[in-house]
Amino acid sequence: MRGLFTVFLVVLALAACRREAKDASIDTRTPPSLAPKYFPPEGWAWGTVQAEGGSSVRYGVAAPSGVPKASVVIAADAGEPAEVYYETARDLIGQGYTVWVLDPGPSPSAGAAAIHALIDNMVRPKASDTVVLAGYDYGALEALLEAEALTPRIDGLVIWAPRLSEPLATQAAQKVKVGMGGFAAAGEHGWIRPDYDLSGRATLAQAWQTANPDLRPKARPWSWFASVAVGGDQASDPARLRLLTVPVLVMSSAADIRAQKVCTELVHCRHIPADPGKPPLHLAPDAERTPWLQALVQFIAARVAERVHGV
Questions:
Q1: For residue 26, how many other CB atoms are within 10 A of its CB?
Q2: Are 55 and 18 in contact (CB under 8 A)?
Q3: Which residue of 8, 35, 123, 213 sits 20 to 30 Å from the alpha carbon of 222, by its own alpha carbon?
Q4: Reduced to 3 states, what is the DSSP secondary structure of residue 21?
Q5: What is the pTM (predicted TM-score) of this model?
Q6: What whole-number distance in Å separates Cα of residue 88 and Cα of residue 306?
Q7: What span, in angstroms and rounded, lies between the C-alpha atoms of 209 and 194?
Q8: Angular region, 211: left φ>0, alpha ψ -120 to 50, beta rest
Q9: How many Å from the N-terminal Cα to the C-terminal Cα in the chain?
Q10: How far apart are CA 278 and CA 202, in angstroms?
Q11: Within 13 Å and on the Cβ side, how many CA atoms surround 72?
C-alpha cells in the first residue's frame, strides 16, 4: 500500500512547482531590509539530501556551542524558503538544540523521503539522542506522512496548521486524469515582485525571494494539488495513525475538524487550538508567536526529559 501510494504521488508531481535544490543557491544573499535577528544563526551551513525520484532537497543546520540536548528537524511549507526559520532556529539553538531546516519537496512523498534521508544520513541519531520532527502546513503533511516510519529514530512530532485537506482535490484529480496535470492550476501565477515593506517577520519569505531569484516559487500545477489531496488522505488514515506511538503536538484552528480527528486517532497526542491565519504562527507578531514558541520548546524539553530521565 505504502509503495503504491509513493509511486502514485511521484507520477503526479512530475511537473513540480518548487525549484529543486540543484537549481537553488546553497548560500543565499541576505536581504538588506532585514534586521540582524532574521540573519543566519552563527555557524549555519547548507547541504542537500537526495529524495526519491532523483529530487535533491536543500537543508540548513546550525548547532549550539556546547553539547546539544536534542536535534530539531523542521519541514518548511511549500513556497517558503528555509531562510524564514532563521529566527526560530536561533531561538531553539539558544535552548541548546541543534536545528535542521528542510526545504519542501516537490511532492508530499518526495518531501517525506527527504526527511527520512536527512535523519538517517545527516542527523544520524544515536540510541541516546533526542530527535523531534516539526512542520508547518505542507511541511506538516510531509512530516506526518513519514513520522510512523521514523518512529524508532524520533521522539516526538509537532505540526501546526497541517495541510490535510485540499479544496481543489476533485478538480485537480480530473485535470490529471485528462492529461492536464502539468498546467498551472486556476488562480496560480508566477512570482510577483512585492511593492510593500519587506523589513518585518511576516514578509520574510518575500524578502528572501526578492533578494534571491532562485528562491522564487513558480505557479503550482494541478498535479501538485492532486498529490497533496492524496497525501492528506493517506496521512489522515486512522490505521496508519494508530501505528505512530511517539507523542504528537498538533496546533490548528478549532474549525479544522480533520486535524482534531487526526489527534484523537493518535496514541499520544495533544491538540492546542490556534489561529491558522496569515501570517502563520512562526511568522506572526510576538503576541501570537511567543505562545507557539513556548509550546514547541516545552514539548522538546519534555521529550529530552523522557529520554534522559525516563519520565
A1: 13
A2: no
A3: 213
A4: helix
A5: 0.91
A6: 23
A7: 10
A8: alpha
A9: 36
A10: 8
A11: 32
Find all residues with CB under 8 Å of 267, minimum gap 6, and list them.
242, 244, 245
**What DSSP character marks residue 34?**
S
C-beta separation of 5 from 113 below 8 A? no
pLDDT by residue, tens only, the chain of 311 residues: 434 333 333 333 333 333 344 445 577 999 999 999 999 999 999 999 987 667 799 999 999 999 999 999 999 999 999 999 999 999 999 999 999 999 999 999 999 999 999 999 999 999 889 999 999 999 999 999 999 999 889 999 999 999 999 999 999 999 999 999 999 999 998 899 999 999 999 999 999 999 999 999 999 999 999 999 999 999 999 999 999 999 999 999 988 999 999 999 999 999 999 876 789 999 999 999 999 999 999 999 999 999 877 65
Number of Cβ within 10 Å of residue 163's Cβ equals 24
DSSP structural state of residue 217: P
Helix (H, G, I), strand (E, B) or coil at 273: strand
pLDDT for 111 equals: 95
Report the SS3 class of residue 44.
coil
Q: Which residue has the cell 488522505?
A: 233
The CB-based long-range contact list for 82-87 (8 Å cut-off, 24+ gap) reads 82/58, 83/28, 83/40, 83/204, 83/208, 83/215, 84/204, 84/205, 84/208, 84/282, 84/283, 85/282, 86/38, 86/39, 86/40, 86/41, 86/44, 87/37, 87/38, 87/201
With contact defined as beta carbons under 8 Å apart, do 111 and 142 qualify?
yes
Whole-number Å distance between alpha carbons of 77 and 61: 17
131 CB-contact burial (10 Å; exposed 0-12 / middle 13-18 / buried 19+): buried
Residue 221, SS3 per DSSP = strand
Question: Of 174, 132, 126, which is closest to residue 156 (Cα–Cα)?
Answer: 132
Q: Which residue's entry shows cell 487550538? A: 273
